[in-house]
Amino acid sequence: MTNPKYKKKLDDLLVLCQKSLPRVDEALIRRAFDFGFNAHRHDIRASGEPYFDHPYAVAKIVAKEIALDDVSVAAALLHDVAEDTEYQIKDIREEFGSTIAEIVDGVTKISDIFKSHDVTQAESYRKMLLSMVNDIRVMLVKFGDRLHNMRTLEYLPLEKQRRLAKETLDIYAPFAHRFGLANVKWELEDLSFKHLHREAYDQIARDLKSRRREREHYIRKFSQPIEKRLREEGFKFEISGRPKHLYSIYNKMIKRNKPLEEVYDLFAVRIILDTQDPNDCFAVYGTVSDIYIPNPERFKNYISVPKKNGYQSIHTTVVGPE
Ligand code: MN
After folding, report:
1. Where are the alpha helices (H) located in 97-211, listed in sequence order?
2. Is the pLDDT of residue 13 over 80?
């Protein structure tokens, strides 16, 4: 029986799964939730919260931000059971079968490696991780686990904060990128940056905030003529502006030795086309170049040559209004 206090949490998770996953075995999620809750019922996190709040948060990340399948969500709910409770992998296998048991086992083994080693050569660790992982869902759950741990890092001792932040920046963030999880990568980088270079992080965050109105106004002004033309040309599309994430701004400032106000690519606009024809992307590039003067040196064609992780798009840098 689900604890009444947690009944709503389970309902929220199920709603999230229904929204973002192709198929949901609700009974499986319920059973994993109850099993995890029961296994962790006596444990407390460093933050003082019930331990189960952690696997629950990881399951939500896996359901919403990684969104592969219900098996990954169930495994996320159980991912710390073998490491931290009286239950073992064989108990999970008996209850949930070998697929979920193997995912949980993989996640547990990855944690063990990092406990016993210091991360010195990031690339060899990434290779080792990959070689250990038979089921890609092990890494997906691990990304969710790391993301939630990074979001709640302030409850750990400073020394440990720094160690985890460095490991995240060196290994997990670039790895998430290769799995095509751009948003996870950005958030991991920004959280690591925050804990490794607190002053620089706070400074950039403050500056960005104080210019936010100005920036949003500018992005609107920039996007309007593009939107108008693309609509006239009959494209189905979404257009959105976003500031780049903090860590990439910081890297640009360092690399070019420039203050924030001179890092021009604070603004990025993304156009997502609803089309089957890659040539439409080039047509839109043509339209944008017609409205704003492009810098040909900054043209990147990931349509003809996709990135290793399968990512395809066109990048261009243009001279905007003013
Ligand atoms: Mn965990």
Report:
1. 98-116, 122-132, 136-151, 158-167, 173-178, 182-196, 198-210
2. yes
